[in-house]
Design goal:
Oligomer: single chain
Helix content: 40-55%
Largest sheet: 8 strands, mixed
Distance between the termini: 20 Å
CATH class of the largest domain: Alpha Beta
Length: 593
Amino acid sequence: MHKGIAVSPGVVVGVVHRVESVFGSGEPVGLHDRAMIPAEIERFDRAVKLSSDELHAIVQKVGQELGEAEAAIFRTHMTIVQDQGLLAKVRALIETQSLTALSGLQMVLQDYAATFARHEHEFFRERLADIRDVISRIGSHLSLSPVPAPAPASIGEEPGPNGDDPVILVAHEILPSQAMSLGTLPIAGIVTETGGGTSHVAILSRSRGIPAVSGCVGISADVRSGDTIIVDGRDGVVLVRPDPETIAAYRKMQREFFNLKDRLVSNRDQPAASADGVPVELLANINNLSDAHSAVQVGAAGVGLFRTEYLFLTHQDVPDEEEQYEHYRQMIAASPTRAVTIRTLDLGGDKTVPYLGRRNEANPFMGWRSIRLSFEHPRLFERQIRAILRAGKHGKVNMLFPMITTLEELRHVNKLVEESRRNLRREGVPFGEDVKTGVMVEVPAAAVCIDALLRETDFISIGSNDLIQYLVAADRDNAKVAHLCEPLSPAIFKVLHMVLDACRRTGTPVTVCGEMAGQPRSVLVLFGMGLRRFSMSPAFVPTIKAVLNAVTTAQAERFAHQVLQLKTSEEIRSYLNARLHEVSSDLEMFDFT
């Protein structure tokens, strides 16, 4: 048994497909036949050529869009991708050890890492980061190119499982570009060694309703493709090669989970309201067009959070204004009721792109990220604001600014929006005149000063994921301290009550768009505190609708009042477990806090 972090609820029994990563810790993978060596070397050389051509184009574009300083890093990458010494090492490993190209890259990277680890100078750390980026780029092209027969699955080099059993991906880590490509694959579960509740894989898993567990250190070394495995995304447990009795018990839980999930989808055309008829808005958090279509299918009332950073994370260079405008326009057209709240760039922490530079920070989650990064790249920020405003003419669009900490920051972004509106009018470019702007409350300082912020913003969106981790000073993606990032805690409920009460007094629209909005126990309390707008992964909409349909306003208010009196997370958890069982015992299996 491996214990990790529960990041997407549900139970699934399936067979492993181990994803080989350039940065993973798995054993090198060999070719099936030495006759495949010439084709594998040719495949590697083709990936290098594609990477080189790509970098050349990026240097030109980033230089024009952001400036020569930002383009300099890609000039360095061009010298690395053309380094004949590095390339020769990979070819030699393919030829002498019959390794796949991806395994050869992995071994070369490990060799460089061991060499540079002996040097403490900052230059060597930055050089290794550049090499990692280039090897990742070559590796991504290898993953997309045809593999000599017998062909492995499309995401790794290790042959996938056969038969009709559900496929469960097991990986050391899955990069953002890989995570986005998983959307078309028939995956039933995901397990990773790294990451946590806000990682790319966690967000993807929840949007698709796939059971997932992260933070399972060492699991890659414990499994091979074809192994039977159980993923319990409610408790964060993974069972490798279980006995027949355990498999039978979990298959029963799996059937119950998916049968109930299928029944809940039928409520898509029913109104979202409490048992006594109080209406609520259930919105969707989306990353891409696939998520937007899912939001329509489950009956979401609109999109409460569109994460624009995924366009940047999966883009080889900086998207220009026209690319962004077209991307946002397509999202609006595909979203329920064409109502979309678009969040500006929220990069940083574990979400980085090389074309915005690299910072070696001791604590990146509390450093150069989100709105702070946008302020440092005003040309990029202005283009995104303009693109969102232009897309606003195609639907009911709001613009949301992440990680606002001070009133000065809010005033600055409001000024930038007004300047963009004036410039668009002067240029005669059509845009949405009624696009409203809002603040994401995820920094405790913003919550404490909420009254001042409310006077200068149109709406509020509470990002509970970051608010929790900043409130308790613990990185929720760090398995060592993730237990402190407890949504069912007295501190978080007191802060949420303060913000919701301030919005109620001023009549300011407010939404919770963090993971708490999709967790049944949390929703009982939030509804009791007066929240009427919830935004969540599309897969959770039917569940939360069922929860709200089963509770009256008076019941929820009583639950919230009692929770605010309790002193510990364990007391709150025990109390809400009993209340959820009282309201609807069937829905307990959909909670994973």
